[in-house]
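Fig. S4 source data, part A: sequence.
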Amino acid sequence: MHILRGMFAVLVAVVFFAGCDGSGSLGPVSDPDYDPMLDPADFGGPIDNPYFSLIPGTTRHYEGETEDGLETVDETVTDDVKMILGIQATVVHVLEYVDGELSEETFDWFAQDDQGNVWYLGEDSREIEDGEVTSTEGSWEAGVDGAKPGIIMQANPQVGQRYYQEFYLGEAEDEAIVVSLNASVAVPFGNFNGCLQTEDFTRLEPDEREDKFYCPDVGLVLEESGDGEERIELVAIDEP
C-alpha cells in the first residue's frame, strides 16, 4: 500500500503477494522475504487518504453484537506522535468494551507517505479483564524484533491487489485483498455507495475471514465476519 522508495514499495507490497505460495492461490501464506524499506524523507504530511483520514481530535464510535456480547469501540485520533523507523507516526487510541466492560485497549501507529499511501507501523495492544491487563499478544513495532511495516490503505487501490497490513512473523501477519471499489453499505451512521471493500485474513488463523468497508471521506464503516454472523458498524463520529 505504499511507496517503498517509489514504485519498489508498491511492487513488493502488492504484486509480489499474488500467488506467492507458488500455486497461484490466494490462501494465507507467510512470506519471510517480505522486507519493505521506508525512507523517512517520503513522510511528514497529514494522513488525509479519503478512505483512511486521521484528523486529530476525531473519535469514531462503532457497535455490534458478537458471540461475547454487545461490543462497542471508541477510536480516537490523538495529537500524540511516536517515532518509528525515523518516521513520525500518528497515535490512534482504541478502547473496546463488551457489555459495557473494558476488554481491550490499543495504541495504533500510522503514517502517510507522499504518494498518499497509509502505512501501519505497529500497535501496543492490551487485553483487559476485571480492570487488569491479561495479555499483550499481538503487539508489535516495525523495526523491533524483526517486525516490518504494512499497508493499511493504498493511495490508489485496485481490485485484486493483495498486501500485508502487518508483519511480525508468527505473531501478526494480517493480509488483505481488495474485492470491490463500488460496494454499497448501510450502517446506523448512514447509507453509502462507491465504497472500498477488502477481505482480511491471516495464516495464523486460516479459518477466519473478515470483510471491511471503507467509504470515501468517511473511513471504515463496517467490519463483518466471513459468515456474516457478526457486524461491527459505525454509529457516530465526533469531530474536533
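Fig. S4 source data, part B ends here. The radius of gyration is 17 Å.
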